[in-house]
Design a protein that fits this description.
The protein is of the alpha/beta class and about 260 residues long. It contains 11 helices and 7 strands. The protein folds into 2 domains: about 80 residues, no CATH class; about 170 residues, Vaccinia Virus protein VP39 (Rossmann fold, 3-Layer(aba) Sandwich). The chain has a 7-stranded mixed beta sheet, with helices on both faces. The chain starts with 16 loop residues before the first helix and ends in a 5-residue tail after the last strand.
Length: about 260
């Protein structure tokens, strides 16, 4: 199955900001109980250890991704871990809630941050969770090259996969907002409107979920991508890691800068 570059609705500049926030809140609420990224904690710890840093700059953070539970898992070995969440369209309300619940382990940037041009002041291991596929090969390489040019480690993890089984799973996934939406906090009437009366949120779950799978990079795609980088001395790890609690393995790409003297 060839990779297809297409749009995801909630990524588009014309998509209403308030509706984008409702979609992101639903994604965050639906994925958090799975703790699907817990299995990659050792890979993240190694990337932090290699960088000799306890700071992480998360890109395309959405509603906060897996960081509330991942930061707790990592804090045992990295006691002063600090995560800065960033996004091109920051959902400041959701990010503020994650930050408040984290015990000062997580902060966020209220400013728009482009993953292809991260401000130099944001130092630390760069991470992305199920968002790298949003970018065309040229833009994806630009994200990697920007990290390399700034001498930062980068760790990318993707749950979506270009396979018929994963695509088929998007249909039951799209039905989940009908079950959990009333329990998302803070409560907003708009969520009920866009889920039950005009089911935009479930439709976006289905449409964007299928597109995410079709856009996803396989390990062989990532290996070809890093070959085209100007990245002397960088060490790259690319593969798949069994995911906790789900059938889909997590694809990962980790780039570590050469050790500084």
């Amino acid at each position: 199955m060839r990779r297809i570059q297409f749009i995801e609705l909630h990524d588009q500049p014309w998509f209403p900001a308030s509706l984008r926030d409702d979609v992101i809140d639903a994604l965050q609420f639906g994925l958090s109980p799975l703790k699907a990224y817990s299995s990659i904690a050792p890979l993240l710890h190694d990337a932090l250890d290699s960088s000799r840093s306890q700071a992480i700059v998360d890109m395309c953070s959405g509603g906060g991704g897996p960081w509330l539970y991942l930061s707790r898992m990592l804090s045992g070995k990295v006691p002063k871990i600090h995560v800065c969440l960033t996004d091109k369209y920051p959902n400041t309300r959701a990010l503020r809630n994650i930050s408040a619940a984290s015990g000062n382990r997580i902060s966020f940037s209220p400013q728009s941050v482009d993953a292809m041009n991260v401000p130099g002041a944001l130092k630390g291991v760069r991470t992305m969770f199920t968002s790298f596929h949003h970018f065309s090969p040229q833009r994806a390489r630009a994200i990697l090259q920007n990290a390399v040019d700034d001498g930062q480690n980068i760790a990318i993890f993707e749950m979506t996969k270009r396979s018929p089984l994963t695509i088929a799973l998007m249909l039951p996934w799209a039905l989940t907002p009908f079950f959990f939406t009333p329990w998302i906090r803070p409560f907003r009437w708009s969520r009920l409107l866009w889920t039950y009366v005009i089911p935009v949120v479930p439709f976006v779950f289905l449409f964007d979920g299928i597109v995410s799978c079709l856009r996803s990079y396989r390990p062989e795609d990532l290996r070809e991508m890093v070959k085209k980088l100007t990245a002397a001395g960088y060490q790259w790890q690319i593969g798949e890691q069994s995911a906790a609690g789900v059938e889909m393995p997590i694809t990962y790409l980790i780039g570590c800068a050469p050790a500084r003297p």
